[in-house]
Amino acid sequence: MPHVHSPTPERNPEPWSRVLPWLAGALLLIPAFLMAPVPIDETRYIGVAWHMRESGQWLVPFLNGHPYPDKPPLLFWLINLFWTLTGVHAWAARALNVAVTGLGVLLLRALVSRLGGSPKVKSEAAWLWVGSLAVIAFSSTIMFDGLLTACSLGMWLGGIDLTGDRGARRRLLGIVVIALSLGLGILAKGPVALLVGGLPLALAPWWSGHARAQWLAWLGALLIALIAGAALALSWALPAAHAGGAAYENAIFLRQTVGRVADSFAHRRPIWWYLPLLPVLILPWVACMARTRTTPSLQVASDDRQRLKRFGLAAFVPAFVAFSLISGKQPHYLLPLLPALALLAGVATAEQRWRLSPARAGAVLALLGVLTAVLVYRVRLPDTTMAPALWGVASALLGVALAWRRPRPLPTAWVAVAMALALLFTRVAAVQAGGERFDITPAAQQLAYAQAHHIPVMSAGDHDGMYDFAGKLQHPVPFVQGHGALDAWMRAHPDGWVISSDRHFRYSATPLYRQPYLLGELSIWRVRDLLANGEQRHP
Q1: pLDDT tens column, 365-379
Q2: Is the pTM of this model over 0.85?
Q3: Shared-domain flag, residues 66 and 200
């Protein structure tokens, strides 16, 4: 079948083409500095990394003084690595994820190129991915899914070497890349790395003619790569299981795999839950794409176009079905699947089979701005002004400007950068409207004072380690769940303090300290004040 390529080397006519990637990176990085780590997840993860640094216990993560089996250690290791370069700051932990997003862009571009995509397809796929709502929103968040995405892209790249016909040296490189990416993926998020990264590799005979023709050699090489990757992960898991004890061993080998699949102990959702969520995650593209009526500009050879499309489908569809069948679901769990959709859409937009509608793209940003302004007005505190709502107005005006942009068609990069800017406006509005309600640093500093002066402290209700990093605590804060246990502790520690944000632990005694927290408040009481007041609780 003849190959069809662009007759001349492709040049980007946009004068801002060299500046836009740097602008997009800055817009993704700025939110890292806007707000303190958000309870409960961000404060928990950065607290685990903090205690890993303070204790020197690098093998087993700890939370509240006990082994923390819910997540593997790679993110905590990398946060500490960043801290050696930047100092111990919350923004550094978030900047790490922005850097991982940048790595993901490079890997996606390399993947498209290795599959036969033109420079135009490569650019389109990268902008479609990094300009989606999910990637922009989660890129500066302390979480594990960005690492998993980068590791999955690495596995996919290694799989192309494994299925190519460039000789034994290239196949050996593919084995090494797959093994390293799989091992790191498991250390980032657990065995789900095999699901996300491995499914398109298992389907290689469908999208690769060489794998189809040499299926036995391909299968043997793939098995070697997967075994080596599992061995790399086990080089941490086996000694960690021994050091963490029987409960930790059971959790990392069974509870975090079989338990999450069969009967999730957290975030249980119905099987259809991802279907309405996916279009939201890939905004604005799902709303502003329109089919063209012109003859496509063929940017890719027909064989390569088929391989690109088949690979994208193999990387997305089976994993999406598997994720839907798994009982535990969260929006960010789908992040590693979005590069596959960007690849598919990149081919269509590069060849002008689809185009971006300026009116629709502008409408998405305008609607985002209106929603921001309305939410700020509805949830603002009595003592705040309407100034934060002006950021929503700015986003709406940005949408109007985008809709009126001339000439057309609208460049994908422009929409991606505009989306990042609009979401930055939304975050600034949220911080100004109530960011102090997420910052538990003042309360955590009270606990640091108590620890420095040997004052016993008990948390009424589980706090998920949210005070540890904010107060740079040297020791975890213990907690109790019931009133009876708390009453017994107070009688044994009349000189202590009680801290709680739990609405079930509210007392009529005047707190030593209080601050707004989320939709309620966070308070610290002296135990002697509670005992003198007869421990009278608010209903």
Answers
A1: 999 999 988 888 776
A2: yes
A3: yes
